[in-house]
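dumping the sequnces here before i forget
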Amino acid sequence: MRIQMADGGDASALIATRILGLDPGLRITGFGLIDMQGNRLRYVASGCIRGADGAASALPIRLKTLFDGVREVIDRYHPDLAAVEKVFVSVNPQSTLLLGQARGAVICGAVSSDLPVSEYTALQVKQAVVGHGKAAKEQVQHMVMRLLDLPAAPQADAADALACAICHAHGSTGLGALAGSGHGRRGGRMLMR
Amino acid sequence: MRIQMADGGDASALIATRILGLDPGLRITGFGLIDMQGNRLRYVASGCIRGADGAASALPIRLKTLFDGVREVIDRYHPDLAAVEKVFVSVNPQSTLLLGQARGAVICGAVSSDLPVSEYTALQVKQAVVGHGKAAKEQVQHMVMRLLDLPAAPQADAADALACAICHAHGSTGLGALAGSGHGRRGGRMLMR
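..and the predicted 3d for all of it:
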């Protein structure tokens, strides 16, 4: 729990929970932060952590980039908890192993900062933001844009991370499906109903 | 590089490299430390990091236990570098994913302490300590005991970790296969020849 002070927020000291969504990948890890205050969600920041040295670097270096990147995001935005998307098991065992290692590094970035970590499957995330589990990436991006009242759709990995954060908020507030049942604005803020 | 000061070592300030070997697993991660000084190897410590809460705990908690355990070993023994065994890709994709995540956590424990990390396949490790890649676990344990002049065989995961450290030392010194070509002692210390 923290005092909501970010730009565009309420000036009064309203208690909000800041959720860090993470979509782990060895090449690109998406992150997205939202503030949840009651049943209101507010966009804070989002982006991608990229392995600076590309795929040519040794695995430990790439894992360090991910770990350090997550720590940097946490140090900068001080989330209260993290929601991490469960990764798909690939048909290629080597890819699955690589993805697992990336996910281990990303989760360690969060738990080493003493953040509680919740996990959500892609199905849960899609159901929370789009209303069904078979949604395409573009639909997720579109709904994240609408739900968080953004001027444009976020980059795909950042959108997945924001969607994961929204999924956690959804579970926390017990609001039921955010999308599908409609959503709207009241008093200039996004309201889930 | 560090000054060799551990118990049983030379009283004179001899420069040694301390290698941390790691054998990652989600349930048990073996660790083993050896000092390499020229072509001499000396046992420092070994053991296992176990998920304190067992398999029932949530994955992020288990990864934190691994990460913290590796950091604790590093803080205690101050190795100069780490050598990590490459894990087998299982036929079960879910097991591969879990193992990958454990490996990611273990490597992050090392790289977050700014240790350089080298990786070795089980084949390389077995070849280095037993002389061929098809060695059984018991053979690895036996050869680690002999090569490091231990009074008894270490526990299997600790032995694998020590074997990985020996494999790194072997590559660093360019000694060729440690086992198979024989090994012996001179002046009360293990000497690889």
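Residues 1-12, 174-193 of chain A have pLDDT under 50 and may be disordered.
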